[in-house]
Write a structure and sequence with these properties.
disordered N terminus; single chain; 54% helix; three-stranded antiparallel β-sheet; five-stranded mixed β-sheet; 683 residues; alpha+beta
Length: 683
């Protein structure tokens, strides 16, 4: 998952037919369309199979756990059996759980939501299982463990410790109940956002300054248009809408999505997390969550974030002052407001830097962007992508590919692209690892299945979809995650691919974002929709000059989001979410909060697994920028460096700790120099 110049969570708008037009493959794909996953289950089949798989898994687990092994070696065997059972469980319910996020059919999504609740509750039960905890602890006492077996046992023991497996029966039952309550609140928070269909009505005159594709895909009203308020529309609207009143209406609508119900869900979840942390032996929820991350100590994280914010806040204020002066020079009335920021940032790009985002879009038609990004990853990682037609997928317009290893010419796995919005679909842009790789009991290796699910702006009827540069950067980032979740060779699912420490998981993809700011790469990924010519050199120079424009504002905003997350998960309850947001935003950023808004109601990271973990985007960027120095030295498309990256960073997954992976790749320990230089801090 990547954060661009905005933090986006979208309300989905309808999708017509938006197949991505790519060249037909020269030969049949190396894999069949059928992955072994049934994407076409009915609600009744989802319900029945979900219950059946859970019941079968519990029965298998009961047999393994009937008695603790007599020796560490016996308990290692038991632990590996458990790992197989849990991997089988996950693999059997891929479609049943994914459909909540992607199915075009509401009844299927609803059935999937129920299955997700049941599987989450079962996950809580397994994690807090005392017998499994003791099996893992015993296995760790084996003196002859392989690196993979040792890390597997460490993670199971770690999960047991942080899930309450070491508590007495009454305490364990109470903690399980609290985990279930948190799961329910997080589920309902996400559904509230997914089911929104907020629109802002504007006049035909106000629509004149908007991109033609946005207007063409909006509903016509008696006097103008109803513009959907979501992730795919926020940047095009706020960047282009000339009327300040219309921008204000859109901004307020976007920053009140989720409603007061989601504010209350967040407050309730934070209170339960604090109570649960204490029950598990931690002072705060942040201390609990960081106990299993690289950063470890919340105070260390706050110090890191505060350093960034304090160093860059003067720069952020100067940037806002410059945009306010631009507003006055163009006749804008009143103070500079938050809904002015995106518009005047775009005006600055058009005037001082002579970069018109709408002109840049003409160079990024979807089909060329995807095919050229394929070429880059093929060169770097020594793989080939082959489209499979017709695709076996969950919705029309979803594309399917085989990933083939160049050295062996053997197929590695499958990858799906689901890139345009539709009603009820997941409202952000992310890599979804669907089936993880692992060594199967017969010794063969299971082929992974991964996906990129997103919400690019819809094309105008009869026209190709055109992307912003930020859209392209986001896609390149998520493609990096997809490779991490496809090219790992870890022995166990628990150790596979992106199952690394949460505050490292973004680092590989953040490193890859750097490619999309290099002139030679921008030439490769661009092709004017009319002339088919790449971006001209002069425009590329201007675009690159924009990379660090307003960095102060952007990075202090990111630091604020992370500081808010850490504060609410370290401060004693009760939480007054909006008042806290207002106080901290006014202090940590260059613009005050807009009264009457409550962005935390749509801040899905806080209720989607990044709670007390949002700092990871900045933390992992330290690793990302240091890793990028290898490619700066050896060449952006150097396949030797790319294969080292594949072998040292992607293949091991969580078999080794991130610092070990990075040290192996760099040939030295990590340092912060490249990171601080990139964000404009001198030390």
């Amino acid at each position: 998952m990547r954060l661009g110049r905005f933090l986006h969570f979208a309300v989905i708008v309808p999708l017509a037919s938006n197949a991505i037009a790519l060249p037909s493959p020269a030969a049949a794909a190396a894999l069949p369309a059928y992955t072994g996953i049934n994407w076409h289950l009915t609600p009744q089949q989802i319900a029945a199979s979900c219950d059946g798989v859970i019941a079968e898994t519990k029965a298998r687990m009961a047999q393994v756990e009937a008695k603790l092994g007599a020796t560490p070696a016996e308990n290692l065997k038991k632990l590996i059996q458990v790992e197989t059972i849990q991997a089988d469980f996950s693999d059997a319910l891929i479609s049943q759980t994914l459909m909540q996020s992607v199915s075009p059919v509401k009844s299927v999504r609803d059935a999937s939501t129920i299955c997700n609740t049941k599987t989450s509750n079962y996950g809580v039960e397994v994690s807090s299982d005392p017998m499994l905890f003791h099996i893992a602890l015993s296995a760790l006492r084996n003196e002859h463990l392989s690196p993979a077996d040792r890390k597997l046992a460490e993670i199971y023991a770690e999960n047991g410790r942080t899930s309450g497996a070491g508590l007495n029966a009454a305490q364990r039952a109470e903690s399980s109940k609290l985990f279930d309550q948190i799961n329910d609140l997080e589920r309902d928070f996400g559904l509230e956002l997914a089911n929104e269909n907020t629109t802002v009505t504007i006049s035909a005159a106000d629509a004149a300054s908007l991109p033609a594709a946005l207007v063409a895909t909006s509903k016509r009203t008696r006097s103008g248009y109803a513009i959907a308020v979501n992730e795919s529309t926020v940047t095009p609207f706020l960047s282009n809408e000339r009327d300040a009143a219309a921008r204000e209406r859109f901004y307020r609508a976007y920053n009140t999505r989720g409603g007061l119900k989601n504010v209350q869900r967040l407050e309730h979840a934070v209170a339960i997390r604090a109570r649960l942390a204490r029950a598990l032996g931690f002072k705060t929820w942040a201390a609990y969550k960081l106990d299993t991350q690289m950063a470890k100590d919340p105070a260390r994280v706050v110090d890191f974030l505060t350093t960034i914010d304090s160093k860059l806040l003067p720069k952020a204020r100067a940037e806002v002052a410059a945009l306010a002066a631009l507003k006055r020079s163009e006749g804008g009335k009143g103070p500079f407001e938050r809904w002015d920021y995106t518009y005047y940032e775009a005006q600055l790009e058009k005037t001082k830097y002579a970069v018109d985002p709408n002109v840049v879009r003409q160079y990024f038609p979807v089909d060329h962007v995807i095919s050229s990004i394929f070429k880059i990853y093929e060169t770097l990682l020594s793989v080939t992508f082959q489209e499979i037609e017709p695709a076996d997928a969950w919705a029309p317009g979803v594309r399917e590919y085989a990933i083939v290893d160049d050295a062996t010419r053997q197929p590695i796995g499958w990858m799906y692209f689901d890139l345009f919005p539709r009603p009820g679909k997941y409202d952000h842009f992310a890599n979804f690892p669907l089936r993880l790789g692992r060594v199967l009991p017969d010794g063969s290796y299971q082929r992974p299945v991964t996906s990129i699910i997103g919400n690019w702006p819809l094309p105008a009827p009869g026209k190709p979809a055109l992307l912003s540069h930020d859209d392209v950067v986001t896609f390149f980032h998520e493609f990096g995650h997809a490779m991490h979740s496809s090219l790992s060779t870890a022995r166990y699912e628990t150790l596979y691919g992106t199952n690394v420490r949460r505050d490292f998981v973004e680092a590989p993809s953040q490193m890859l974002e750097n490619w999309m700011w290099q002139p030679s790469i921008l030439k490769l990924v661009s092709s004017n929709v009319a002339t088919r010519k790449p971006l001209p050199d002069e425009l590329i120079k201007k675009m690159i000059a924009l990379e660090h424009v307003n960095d102060g504002f952007q990075w202090t905003t990111q630091a604020f989001y992370a500081l808010y997350d850490m504060h609410i998960h370290t401060a004693p309850p009760p939480l007054h979410a909006t008042a806290t947001w207002q106080r901290m935003e006014n202090r940590e950023t260059a613009l005050p909060m807009v009264p009457g808004t409550y962005f935390e109601a749509s801040f899905g990271h806080l209720m989607g697994g990044y709670d007390a973990g949002y700092y990871g985007y900045l933390w992992s960027k330290v690793y990302a920028q240091d890793m990028f120095t290898v490619f700066q030295r050896d060449g952006l498309l150097n396949p030797v460096a790319g294969m080292r990256y594949r072998k040292d960073i992607l293949q091991p997954g969580a078999t080794f700790e991130p610092d070990v992976l990075v040290r192996n790749f760099l040939g030295r320990p990590l340092n912060y120099d490249a990171f601080y230089k990139d964000i404009g801090i001198t030390r």
